[in-house]
Amino acid sequence: MQMSVKHAYLPAILSAAVAATLPTTTFAQLEEVLVTAERREASVQDVPIAVSAYNEDMIDKLQIDDTLDLINVVPNMFGGNNTGLGTANMYYLRAQGNDESISTFDPPVGTYVDDVYITRQNVNNVALFDVERIEVLRGPQGTLYGRNTTGGAISVVMKKPSDTMQGYVEAGAGRFGKTLLRGSIDLPLSDNVLTKFSAYYVDDDGYLENRTDGKDYNEADLTGVRAALRWLISDSMTWDIAVDGGKSEVSTIHGFLDGDDRYSLSVLGDGLPMGGGMSDYGNEVETLNITSNLAWDAMGGTANLILGARSIEQDFLLNFPFSLDFIPDFFIIDNEGEHDMFSAELKWSGDIMDGRGFLQTGVYYMDEDNEVDFVDYLDLAAVGAPVPPSTAFLTLADRILSNTTESFAVYAQADIQIGENGTLTLGARYTDEEKTVDFQGGPNLNSAGMVAAGIPLEQNEQEITPRIAYAHKFSEDMMMYLSATNGFKSGGWNARGTSSAALQAFAPETIWSYEFGMRADWMDGRLRTNVTAFYSDLEDLQTTAATPDGQFLTTNAGGLEVPGVELEITALPTDNWQIFAALGWQNAEYQSLPGGCVTPNASLAAYDANCNIAEPKRSPHQTYTVGTSADFNIGSLTLTPNVMVRYLGAQYPATRNQGYDGSVTLINAGVKLSAADSRWELNLECKNCADKAYTQSFLFTSYLNLPMTYLATLKYRFGG
User: Is the pTM of this model over 0.85?
Assistant: First the structure.
C-alpha cells in the first residue's frame, strides 16, 4: 500500500502553514530538551538517534498520564492494553511488537525506569507522575541498552529529591466513577541528604456492561508509593536510591461483541478449582522495586554502579469467547506467577583523545527467575452442556512453568570528532545469554516429554550488536546524521502448549536498521523540524497468533522489511501559542516465510486462514497527531486550552489478519486554569472526546480501546 496523495503532502503543507503564521516580532524560543538517549545528557537536537522526548511541561500539555498514552504522540507507534491484562501494555514501534505476556517471551520494545530494565510486560504500564522526562527511542538500541530493544526503548526518568522542601497534592474525579489522589513531597534532611516521598491512588468503576448479570466490569483499584533518597556524599560522589511498590486490581471481563457498543455476555461462575488460584475474573499484580545509582569521579571521567531489583506477584483469571459464534466463557486461563529480577551495571564515561572524543564503556549482568502455575479450562456449563456444577470445568492443561534468564554483556561506544563539525560514533555490545525452562504437569505435559520430542531445555546465545553513525553540524541550528544499528531479541519457548510436543522453542530475532535524520531549528528558535527516514531489515521475526484449534503459537515467521519516514514539528507563533505535530509513514512487508501452508491449522502464524501471506499486524501505514495549546492571561489567572487530533491508519490487530480495522480519528482536549504563582491549578481533560472505537488487540474476538473519558483535577503546590 502506498501513501495516499493527501497524506503524502501533509508534512510539507503543515510546515509551510506554520512558517507562514509565524510573526517576525516575537522573541519566544522553543525550550531546549535535554535527553539521555545515548546514556549521557545532551540536547535532543544534537543526538544522532530517532528519539521523541517529553519534559514535565510537555507531559502535562499532551495528557500523557501513563506510558500507554505515548501512542498518541510518537510517530509510527501503536499499542494498547494487552488482551485482558489491565497492567500489561503491548507497544509497537516501526511494526515491531508483540502481545505475548508469558515469561518465556520477551517484548521487542524495552521499558526502562532510571536506567533499570523492566523484564516483564505484566508491569510495563508506568504511572507517570513525579516524572522529570520520558524518552522514546525508535529503532534498535542494541549497543547501549542491550537485549530486547529491536523495536526501540521507552526510558522514564524520575524526578530526583530537591534541596528545598516542596511538593504537591492533587485530587480528581471523572467518568465511570473514577477517583484519583496523588501527591509528592521533598524533605531535605540536611545539605547533603535529600529525600522525596510520593504516592497515588486510583479507583475506577469500569465501563464494560455485562448483559448477562447487568453489572459493569473493568473496574480498577491502583495504589503505589515511592521513596527516593539522594546522598551527596562528597563533591565527587553521589548516591541515588529509590524504593517503590504498588498493587493493581483490575477486573478484566472483555469479550466485546460489537464494534460500536461495549458489552459482554460473560457467564461468571463461582471460581475455578485451581488450588490457590483466583476466585474472581480479573488481574491482580503486586510489585516491589529498588533502583540504585552510585556515581563518582574516576580516571578523568564518571563511573556509575547501577543496581536494580524487581519482584512481581501476579494472579489473573481470564475468559475468552472461543468460536465464530462468540460462545461466552468457553476458554479460560487461571494463572499465578512470581517473577524476580536483579541487574547490575558498572559504567564509565569520559573524554578521550585530548577531548576530541567521548567514550562510554561498561559491563552488565542480569538474572531473572520466573515461576508460573497456570491452567487452561473449557467451561462446559457456559455453552449449555447438561453438567452439574462440580464438573462444569474441563481441564485442558495444568502445569507449572519455571524459567530463568542469565545475561552478561560488555559494551563500548566512542564519539570521535571529525574536523570542526563532524562526529563519528562507533560502538558494539557483546551479549552472552543463557535461558532454561522446566515444565511440571501431567504425563503428557512435562520437561521429560519435551526432551523426548527433541525440544531443548536450555538456550544459549552469544551476539555482537554494533552501531556506526556519522553526524554533521552544518550550523548551531542544523544537524544531519547517517547511522546503521544492529539489535537482537532473545529466543524462548511456546509455553502455552497443551502437550509436551507443543512446547516448541523459537530462535532469537535480529535486525539491522539504517537511518538518515535531520534536526533543525528555524526562525530564531521558533520553529523546530526533526525528520527521520529509516529502513529496517529483520530476520527470524518472532510472531504470535491464536490458531483456530485454540493453540497460542509463537514462531520465527521469517523476514520483515520496514521502510518509513517520521516527522516531528514544534512551533511558537507567539510567546503564548504553541503548535505541534508528529507524523509517521511506514510500509511493513514480509519478505520470506519458512516452510509452507497446507491447512489453516498447520500454517505458520504469518499466514492468514487462506494460506496467503498476511500483512504485518499493528502496522498502520499512516499515523499523525496535530495539536495546539495557548496561554491566555485573565487578571491573576492563566487559562490554557489544548486540543490534539490523532489519526490512526487502517491496520490488522491480529497476526492471521482477523479483525481488520479501518482508519480512525481520535480527539483529546483539555483546559487548565492556574494561579499566577502556580500554586493552584484546575485541570479539565477528555480523551477520545468523540467516543470512537477501534480494535487494539484481537484474540478470538476484538478488544477495544477506551471509550470517551473525562477527568477534573485540582492540584495545590506548596513550599519551594
Answer: yes
